Amino acid sequence: MQRLIGLTVAVSLLTACFDSNNVKDFVAAEKRLTDIIENTIQPSRIENQYRANIQLSASNLLELLPDINEYARSVDARDSSQVEAVEIFTSSEKGGSGVDGIYVDLANQYNSQRNRLPNGKIGQIAIRKIASGAAASFLLANQHVPDAYSPSNLLWGQMLASQGVDLTLIDKATAPNVAGVVVQKQKVDQISDNGQLNLQKLLTAVTSGEFAMGYTNPYQSSTGLNFLLTVLHAFAQGEERQMLDPDVASAFEAFQRGVPFVAQNTLQMREATVNSGVLDAFVMEYQTFINANGLGGYEFVPFGVRHDSPLYATAEASDDERLVLTQFAQFIKANAGIAKRYGFAANPSYQSSYELNDGAVILNAQRLWKDKKSGGRPIAAMFVADVSGSMDGDRIRALRVAMTEAANFISSRNSIGLVTFNDTVNVDLPVREFGLQQKSQFLGSVERMSAGGGTATNDAILVAAYDLLEFAKTHPDHKLTIFVLSDGETRNGLALSKVDKVIQMLQIPIHSIAYGFESSDLKAVSSLVEASYTESSTGSAAYQIGNLLNAQM
Predict the structure, then answer these.
(1) The predicted structure's pLDDT at residue 173
(2) What is the rounded CA–CA span in Å between residue 126 and residue 19?
(3) How many CB atoms are closer than 10 A to CB 97?
(4) Mean pLDDT, the chain, whole residue set
(5) SS3 for 325?
(6) N or C: which end of the chain has fewer CB within 10 A?
(7) Which residue from 132, 490, 152 is spatially nearest to 306, judged by alpha carbons?
(8) What's the pTM?
(9) Domains of the chain
(10) 490 and 11 in contact (C-beta within 8 Å)?
C-alpha cells in the first residue's frame, strides 16, 4: 500500500481534536463513541439487498487446508540418488528460529555428519515448522502426509490413531517439556498449593468469575488441548468414560462463562494479555515461559500430561527412512545437553496428572468444546472488511472466498452484521440473527464487495462497536465481538492513539487478520481487549478465518 503524505497529514488533522486519554470507564467511552459516530464519522447505512445462494451443509476445516508451502521448511533436504531425505512436521517451539529452533539445530548437526545407510545413501532430515494441530489436520485429511511427525505431546498421536492414521512411535521424548498455568504472583495461592495446581480451586475460582483465565484453541494448540482435557478429566473426577457425559458438559459450560479469552496459539495469548495485565492467568509451555520477556511478575504452575515432543513415523516412511529417523532420535539422545540450552528438560520430576486410553475421547472433547465454548451465551459479531484500493485483485477475491467459507462456521443462533470500509465506512448489513435470510444477504454483500479508496480502519471498528452496543441494548444476553480483515495500516480517519482508550473501555474483543504483512496497527488494536491477531497470505485466508471462527463462534 502506498504511503501518501497527503493522507498521513489528513489523518493528523482529522484526529488533532480527539483525545481519549480522559476516558476512564464504559459510560464515558460509550458517550464519546456516540459523539464520534454522529458528528465525525457519520457512516453510510446502505444495506445490501442482494441475496446469494447459500450452502446448507457445514464447512469442514480439513477442506480448507492451504497449500503445504504456506508452512515453510526451516531445514531443507531433498531425495536424490545420493540422499535419503526424511521430512518431519515439527511443532512451533522446535521448528522456528532462536530459542524455538532446537529441531533446526539438531537436524543441521545430524545432516552435517552425512551418515551413510545400508542402501548407500546419506541420511538427511528436513524440518517443516507447523503447529501440532495444523499438522494433525493434514494427516487426517491425508493431504501432503510427511514422513514423520513431532507434535508437542502424545495426545495428538492418540487422537490420530483413533481415526485410523498409521503412526509408529520412534521416540516418546525428544525435547522434554511441560505445560502450565502462568499466573500473576499475587494470585498464585488462589489456584495452587505449594507450587502444585489445585484444579478444584482453579475450576471454582473461574466458574464463579473471581479469577480471569485464558487458554488456547484446542483444535490448534497442544497446550490448549491439554488444558481442555485436564478440565474435563477433573469434572469427571478422573473417570475417562464420564468425560463427555451431559453433567460434565454442563459443568464445563458454566466454567466457560468465566473464561474471557481463547487465543489461537500461545504467542497470541502472551502478546494479548501481558501488556494489558487483565487476565489473572493463561496457559503456556515451560520452555516458552522461561525464554519469554515480560513475565517477571508471573509464576509457572505445571498441569496435565507432559509435553515431551514424541517423534512418530507415518505410513509414508519407508524402511530406510525409518532407519534415518531412528538414527536421528539416537543422535538427539546422545546430545541431550542441547535441550537444556533451549529451555527444555527443566522439569524432569513432573509426572502427567492423567492418562487417556481411548484417543477418540480427544476428538469428541474438541467437539464438546466447540459446542460449549461460549458458555451458553449466543454471540453477536460484526465483520469489518477492508475494501480499500490495495485489496484489488487477488486479495479481494481471496477475501470473498474466505468470508463465504467462514459463514458456514457460524451457528444460526448467533447474530452477525457486516461493515465495509475504505476511506469511508458503510454498514452493509445490520446485526441480526444469522438465519437463512441474514446469511443469504451476508453472502450477497460479500459477493458484491469491490476495492477502491483509502483505509479508515479505526473508523470502521468504532462503527462496528457502536452498532453492537445498540444491538446489546435489546439483546443483553449476547456476547459481543468484532472481526477485522485488512491488508493495510490505517491511512485515513481517526488514529488509534486518539481512540484507543474508548475501544479499551468498551471491552469488545477485536480479532484481526492481516493479509500478507505484519500490521502494527491491527496488532495494537487486538491487544486492547484480549483478542487474537493473525497474519495470513491470500492462499491461507479461508483456513485462518475458519480457525478463528471455530475458536470464537
Answers:
(1) 97
(2) 52
(3) 9
(4) 89
(5) helix
(6) N
(7) 152
(8) 0.85
(9) 5-61+377-552 (3.40.50.410), 68-177+308-341 (3.40.190.10), 178-307+352-370 (3.40.190.10)
(10) yes
